Amino acid sequence: MIVADYSRPFWPLFLHVLGAMTTVGGILTVVVLSYVAWNRPEAAFLRRATFTALVVTIPFYILLRVFAEVMYSDEKDAFAGKDPTWVGIGYITSDAGFLILLITIGLAYWWKRSEKPVAGRIVAVLSTLLLLMLTVAMLAMSGKWGS
Amino acid sequence: MDKTQWLLMLHIAAAFCLVGGSTAAAILNALAVRSERPSEAAFLLKLIRYTLPLIFAGVLGTLLFGLWLWHDLGFGFGTGWIWAALVFWALASALGGRGGRDQEHVRQAAEKEAAEGDTMSAELRARLRDPKALAVNYAAGVATLAVLVIMIWKPGS
Question: Is the predicted ipTM greater than 0.90, yes or no?
């Protein structure tokens, strides 16, 4: 039963998991860079690097989100209209997370251009929040919470 | 959640640590390669150390929980896809370690140049873009991807 829960067509699951893992790596990079930059507000290269890391994360996030939807479309009938908890957590995280990612990119651009430390600090806080949300979603989906 | 679900969750969490940490290290390395000054390259390469605890936890966790699941799910000793994944896991770990040592040598060279005027020399630029070192890093990434492919595909099961 459990093995069946984790058995799905290869490509959508592979691309979803690959997107999720690389998204976590991209956001982790942003967290490291933005907190290091917190104490080095004069370092322009850290502001540029943070913005670049965020932009690099977009295709990873799209991979995660698109193939999550592909799998859900194929499997939603099996849930009979009552999505398990892990699906709900995945949806909330991926939709709210994408909004947070876009806001963080906007703030990182503002930080890069204006050099205002407060923008960098908001980027650090938002990227940490996003990393925590992704971690909870990953645990919920891999543990199949509520199924 | 029963024991098997716990083990699967921890195994997958470890895989996220390994691939997520490796991705972060790769992004920091790529940013260092594009740096304008040796001090910036050295600093970005130094930040890779923050990803190492995650990568090490991922390497150990995937092996530990993977072996435990092997036993728990009752797969036979001769299950080919698990052995193939173990081979690629060992290859990825070895190549990742080698790539990390190369990066550390480049970081030391960048710090030396940073202390001597902070102007990027052609030699340091070439070391940052060394095709052999890049090939080792790419090979480590491909081996890690191969483990992921095998784990999801489970050929023959």
Answer: yes
